[in-house]
Amino acid sequence: MQVQSMEKTIRGLAYVVGDAVDTDQIIPAEHLVYSLTRPDERRMYGRFAMSGVPAAGQGLPFGHTPFTEPDVYRSRYTFVVGGTNFGCGSSREHAPFALTEAGARVVIAESYARIFFRNTVDGGFVTPFESEERLVGRVRTGDELELDTVRAHLTNRTAGEVLLLRPLGDIADILKAGNVFAYARQAGLIPAAP
Amino acid sequence: MTITEKILASHAHRKRVTPGESIWVDVDILMTHDVCGPPTVDIFKREFGQDARVWDPTKLVLLPDHYIFTANHHANRNVRLLREFAAEQNLPHFYDVGTPRYKGVCHVALAEEGFNRPGSLLIGTDSHTCTSGAFGMFSTGVGNTDAALIMGTGKIWLRVPETMRFIFEGDLPPYLMAKDLILAVIGDIGCDGATYRAMEFDGDAVYALSMQERMTLTNMAIEAGGKNGVIAADSVTIDYVRARTDAPFEVVHSDADARYHSEYRYDVSTMEPVVAKPHRPDNRAGVGEVAGTRLDRAYVGSCTGGKLEDFVAAASVLKGQEVGIDTYIVPATTEIGRALHTTDLDGVSLHEIFENAGCLMGQASCGACLGGPKDTFGRNMASEVVISTTNRNFPGRMGSKQASVYLASPLTVAASAITGVITDPREVLV
Fold first, then answer.
1. A192 in contact with chain B, both atoms CB, cutoff 8 A
2. Which of B22, B195, B396 sits opposite A170 (nearest CB)?
3. pLDDT digits over A168-183, tens only?
4. How far apart are CA B220 and CA B187, in angstroms?
5. How far is CA B197 from the centre of its chain?
6. What does the alpha-carbon distance between residue A158 and residue A160 come to, in Å, rounded to a whole number?
7. How far apart are CA A190 and CA B157, in angstroms?
8. Looking at CB atoms within 10 Å, which of A37, A40, B259, B391 has the fewest?
9. Nearest-CA distance from B396 to chain A in Å?
10. Phi-psi region for residue B164, left (φ > 0), alpha (ψ -120 to 50) or beta?
């Protein structure tokens, strides 16, 4: 696998949801039957990403704004912005995979459930940043965001304000390596790739 | 140190560990199932090579359980992929669908088959892997990537969690079950109240519980965000384990001077039956507060509420009664399914009690707990209002995001199944 480390600057549109968006909302369990490697099947994860969020909560503050349009396998949104306990519920790695497959690059939430956070980092999917303050209600779906991944500064270009994120902390080493396998190889914990 | 810290230290080959530090530990058992197994195998082969061998075939347990009784061909293919991998790697612990070995729900099967052993460290590709902590061991759920790394190396990195201590004291009244206790805890601390932490359950009322009831407590640690749930092993644990495995194990206790993040005390004799209202497991209410709420169906099943004692409790309420709404009975494992025929109340088998009451009988699997393919037994398809012994009620969890799910004990679910509205079990228990 081609492992890519994070770019310094990521720009794109925001998609905002509320608190406790669990993995069943990120990717409903009925879709977990598809292969994550076969190209004709893996795109289904992009198509159904965030489809479990109840309509009123899809794309706040407006609601009724799907993350991906019907029969489109990609999302126009680069940033998923959530409240507390984002990704709670099941351990399915299909959740961060689905967000990534849809085209999202970054999740910014007030707090994360442990397994989802770990899966994003170890699997090298969307990068999980934590916000210093609540962004739900402050960032609106469709706002144009620019993230400085090194300084953890988020600029809302639509609203013209800078929002502070928390430093990535001790997961930064794995994020820099790309995923947990690359990290473990760099650290000499497992042999070089076959 | 706490139990959790001691087990992590021993598996990192260290004398001590401190909450907050990240360590690499040896894994005793890795469990996976039909949903996360095939993608884990894909990553394992991508990273370690097409001809790679798992680190120790005796330590990998494959338990298909999620999407079993379905015509969905993608789901059926995933079971086939597990079968091919088990054959290729010559894995002794594969519990294949359609064979006498088939078990059903992995967390209950791990206990029944003797893979839960005090002092050990078990990782599974399922969030409810924390269930195994009822056996005085460390267990937690991970994603496919971490599981693939374990498949190749037998190792995982873990951050040592702080431990929260929950002490239950007093005599448990007959109308309460472990489900009421854990729903009360989650209601108190919230769905993220234990995030990144261990939840240690302690106190006389915990040690008075059977293993099955203890498993209900640790099973739902994840619904408070907990990394693991744990209960120190005692004679009840040892008797259960000895009956199922000859493997050695080590009983570990928290030190008297162990440091806890926080401590909560409950007098179970004064607690009330509770439910979690839609759409969060921490949306707790006393049964009395929601009594009379109209229901469309009742569900008894899953790793949380589909164990034999859950059905004994439900049958004690349903005996000689008729259900007023569609009521689904789904045993967690085939062993429990068989026991429904051989366990009786006053000479009538549990199976007969449920059939006579008009319940719909399902086969051992995760069933409708997590929705699943459209033809899953008991799956919500519209705006049903459901009372269930399962573990989660986030929107869409049981199949339809228009549905509303109340979580409750088997006693409360059975009482409500008769009346068709949420009912306090004290009204029907004599």
1. no
2. B22
3. 888 899 999 999 999 9
4. 12
5. 18
6. 6
7. 13
8. A40
9. 7
10. beta
Q: Exposed, middle or buried by CB within 10 Å (0-12, 13-18, 19+), for B356?
A: middle
Give Cα separations from A103 to A96, A140, A143, B42 (angstroms). Answer: 11, 19, 17, 22
Is the pLDDT at A189 greater than 90, yes or no?
Answer: no
pLDDT at site A4: 53
Torsion B414-B420-B423-B427 (CA) sign? negative
Cis peptide bond upstream of B279, omega within 30:
yes
Q: Which two tokens stand for residue B157?
A: 């990195």
Place of tokens 């503050």: A61
The answer to whether the pTM exceeds 0.90 is: yes
As given in the structure block, the two tokens for residue A111 are: 């707090």
**Which residue in chain A is spatially nearest to B403 when comparing CA positions?**
A54
- Measured at the CA of B66, the angle between CA B334 and CA B400, to 5 degrees, comes to 120
Q: What residues of A are in contact with residue B195 (Cβ under 8 Å)?
A: 85, 111-114
Q: Please report how many Cα atoms fall inside a 13 Å half-sphere around the Cα of residue B179, on the Cβ side.
A: 35
Residues 6+ apart with CB under 8 A from B347: none
Which parts of chain B sit beneath pLDDT 50? Answer: none
What is the pLDDT of chain B when averaged over all its residues? 98
Element (H, E) at B410: helix B410-419
Q: Which residue has the tokens 């899809």?
A: A58
Per the structure block, which two tokens stand in for B95? 């519990």
Cβ contact (<8 Å) for A89 and B42?
Answer: no
Residue identified by tokens 């620019």 is A146
DSSP character at residue B68: -
For B221, the closest chain A residue by CA position comes to A89
* Alpha-carbon distance values, A42 to A35, A49, A53, B71 (Å): 6, 11, 20, 21
Q: How many CB pairs under 8 A join A and B?
A: 145
